[in-house]
Amino acid sequence: MDDFVSIEKPLVVFGCAYLSWKIIKHISSFLKLEKEPVTVLVTGAAGQIGYALVPMIARGAMLGPDQPVIIHLLDIEPAAEALNAVKMELIDAAFPLLKGVVATTDVVEACSDVEIAVLLGGYRRREGMERKDVMSKNVSIYKAQALALDQHAAPDCKILVVANPANTNALILREFGPSIPEKNITCLTRLDHNRALAQISERLNVHVSDVKNVIIWGNHSSTQYPDANHATVHTSTGEKPAIQLIDDDDWLKTEFIDTVQQRGAAIIKARKMSSALSAASSACDHIRDWVLGTPKGTWVSMGVSSDGSYGIPQGLIYSFPVICDKGEWSIVQGLNIDEFSRQKMDENAKELMEEKSIAHSCLGD
Amino acid sequence: MDDFVSIEKPLVVFGCAYLSWKIIKHISSFLKLEKEPVTVLVTGAAGQIGYALVPMIARGAMLGPDQPVIIHLLDIEPAAEALNAVKMELIDAAFPLLKGVVATTDVVEACSDVEIAVLLGGYRRREGMERKDVMSKNVSIYKAQALALDQHAAPDCKILVVANPANTNALILREFGPSIPEKNITCLTRLDHNRALAQISERLNVHVSDVKNVIIWGNHSSTQYPDANHATVHTSTGEKPAIQLIDDDDWLKTEFIDTVQQRGAAIIKARKMSSALSAASSACDHIRDWVLGTPKGTWVSMGVSSDGSYGIPQGLIYSFPVICDKGEWSIVQGLNIDEFSRQKMDENAKELMEEKSIAHSCLGD
């Protein structure tokens, strides 16, 4: 009998613990105890990426299905009415997680107490414009945004720059937001990362969630280097290197890279507008993985401040493979870089150095 | 000792059952056993509601976060390139739940084996056009769609018509899709329902998820009757009737109704385009509640085939309060209808009878 009891004991303890947990859960749900809302800023929110992004945030795609949110929408004065329409529609959709919406053209009001900032607002290059003129417009936008975030955002606000030139806009932000932790300023290359996963999935006729660990190195421009050398594919006989399954070095070095680099242009050609749905979705993926962590064994691409890893000049905002845990990203170390990759990575660093000096010249440095 | 064992036994059984369940769950997840994908058709998918809707479907907002989906996108030939861009972006977003995308201008290919159909495609009234001319265009579109769904969709396909005139488009669909169960044809008034919830929430300064059981009666047109007489509000001291908390009969009978009826026009005025984000989100809510059930004690508004409830002529597609369970809607019975409501409800029935006869005259009946 004693033996029988000793086997039962752990189960009893386990059962009691489980029941207690269930009871606490029911009481919490009865009392409607829920998480405190997180305040998310979206700039350029009257634009088409904003319009695609805000319902995703309000549905929990960015911060999780049990995380209430307050959304701050910022845009410029001429877009004020359209911005207000976005607010009206967010209200009309009766999202259970959405605890508040602020639509404003005042950058200080928009930035106040925000814990996540997704910066879609920027100045787009128009036909016939010089690169320097566009940079000059964006430098002043991001300088102003940096000052407002520096002074009014929550101290640990996580920032994602989506607007092009994304890496350099993020760099300006860092330079003019001295109290913002360097680790909290990032730019989006997840869209390119997802596109690279999708191209491999299509090529191998496997589902995209079975492909992982591609890398986007460098600049979120058509110079970016999509790298499949370390990617793996989940198969019925385990994880296999993507390059082994593809077995076509020529495709990997040409068509694959070109397709990912030029995908934005291909969407514009077909849609007569730039990608919004996929950009918004990738922005959610970027923040979600940053805040909630990357799945075990999986890395993602993020534009972050270089610490000199892989020989990339320190301080450049450069896209690296990163893993995220407890709200912190860290660059994946120790990957073998072949000669082809080295050259592409250096090209990106060079382009970003140039952008940096153009930006500085706009500041009159 | 015997007594002790008799208390422990249920816990042991419980513990064992729980452990077995956990083990099965882990094995399933290891073997990647997952639900079969559900095929969802979206017509008019190159339009702006389609563009807002498809990422929501692909993220699980419509059928649940563990339900894989295949999306069929249909649009007309002139929109083929834009439609293909939507497909490209869905692929680029690397949605884990999205198991396939078909973009086509062929109605038979689009309708084949679909289990959910969201019909956004229709002909919009242009300035100076007679109501009958618009109806005539939509009658031919919905007749063709009915024939294709009747012959090629899955036998239990659930259909949601969003395109205006939504109720009458749904009626045409029913008349030309004889094998489609009558209960499977619905039209969207959930957007109006959500707008009504939101207006009460704003008025009382409570969160929208604390308000429930408004009703949209009748036609998805500006004649619709938003009815707050049976709505309740969750407060710290229990559920309270909304009309008691609002305590302003004049507001409820005028401003509240006007605001909900005219909200679509207000969005168009501010946005210079009709509502897409909130329409798409409400379409997700409609299908989700229909398929997965309405929460206990909560009803929603859906345009469905009248069975004569509340004196509404049998066979009209009319918006009623419904509860949903196991994939079936049923009209909430026994609500008290005051004289004001009766008149508004009859006005809607009258308008829908007129629309029906215009539609029939377009068919040469």
Number of domains of chain A: 2
| Largest sheet descriptor of chain A | 6 strands, parallel
- According to CATH, the homologous superfamily of the largest domain in chain A is Lactate dehydrogenase/glycoside hydrolase, family 4, C-terminal
Shape of chain A: globular
- In terms of DSSP E residues, the strand content of chain A is 15-25%
Query: How many β strands of chain A by DSSP?
Result: 14
* Alpha-carbon distance between the two ends of chain A: 85 Å
Structural class of chain A: alpha/beta
H/E series of chain A:
HEHEHEHEHEHEHEEEEEHHHHEEEH
Spatial strand sequence of the major β-sheet of chain A? 3-2-1-4-5-6
Name the quaternary structure.
Answer: homodimer
The CATH topology of the largest domain in chain A: L-2-Hydroxyisocaproate Dehydrogenase, Chain A, domain 2
Rg of chain A over CA atoms, rounded to whole Å, is 23 Å
Biggest interface and which pair forms it? Answer: A-B, 59 and 59 residues
Helix content of chain A: 40-55%
CATH class of the largest domain in chain A: Alpha Beta
Contiguous helical run count of chain A: 12
CATH-derived architecture of the largest domain in chain A: Alpha-Beta Complex
* Average of per-residue pLDDT values of chain A: 92
Keywords (chains A, B): NAD, Oxidoreductase, Tricarboxylic acid cycle
Active site (chains A, B): 220 (proton acceptor)
Enzyme class (chains A, B): oxidoreductase
GO molecular function (chains A, B): L-malate dehydrogenase (NAD+) activity
